[in-house]
Amino acid sequence: MYEYIRGEVTDTGKDYAVIDAGGVGYRVNTSSNTLRSLRTGETAKLYCSLVIREDAHMIYGFYTPEEREMFNKLTSVSGVGPKLAVAVLSAMKITDIAMAVIASDEGAFEKINGVGKKTAQRIIIDLAGKISAGDATAGGGAEADKESEAVGALVALGYNRAEAVRAVSSVKNLGDKAEDIILMALKRMGA
pLDDT by residue (tens digit) across 1-37? Predict the structure, then answer.
């Protein structure tokens, strides 16, 4: 129903921001990643998703359209409601969520409060067909570019994509350049 809300940030809380748009204060539930980007008194644009329940209509807003899209994908998973989807988005970057799904890394999701083994498995199974390698690099800038380059190089060397993503995910913070990440990933995979 709403594409985005643009207005002045008048207040923020643990998991929401109040946006004054045209004299109306909208309480917009959001992730901690989005909250870190907002400053009280400044104008913000949040990409929205309206969630309608029997007892409430809630607006969820995100700093980027990619984050909103991931929210919508997460809430499409059976057993994952908007609050849990926000918890996942608060704990992980979009690229990390995509990489965890591609690599079938249940442990990445199980670290999040409220996500057990069965929910982690359901997220991976349900999102497997909805997450692409492009999602694993969306909105990540230079960091995502080097990760994508490393995964691409490993796939070109004959490794399957899931094992390449898993290896790159485990060493991505240890190297500044794609070449370093590739070498460390190869060592990790026993090559």
Answer: 789 999 999 999 999 999 999 999 999 999 999 999 9
**67, 35 in Cβ contact below 8 A?**
no
- Which one-letter amino acid corresponds to residue 98? A
Query: Which tokens hold the place of 125?
Result: 């199974």
Residue type, 121: Q
**Residue 73, CA distances (Å) to 130, 146, 169 in order:** 8, 25, 21
For 35-61, how does the pLDDT look when each residue is reduced to its tens digit (9 = 90+)?
999 999 999 999 999 999 899 999 999
Q: Which among 137, 107, 130 is positioned nearest to 120, based on CA atoms?
A: 107
Domains of the chain from N-terminus onward: 4-62 (2.40.50.140), 65-127 (1.10.150.20), 141-188 (1.10.8)
Residue 139: pLDDT above 70? no
Residue 68: how many other CB atoms lie within 10 Å = 22
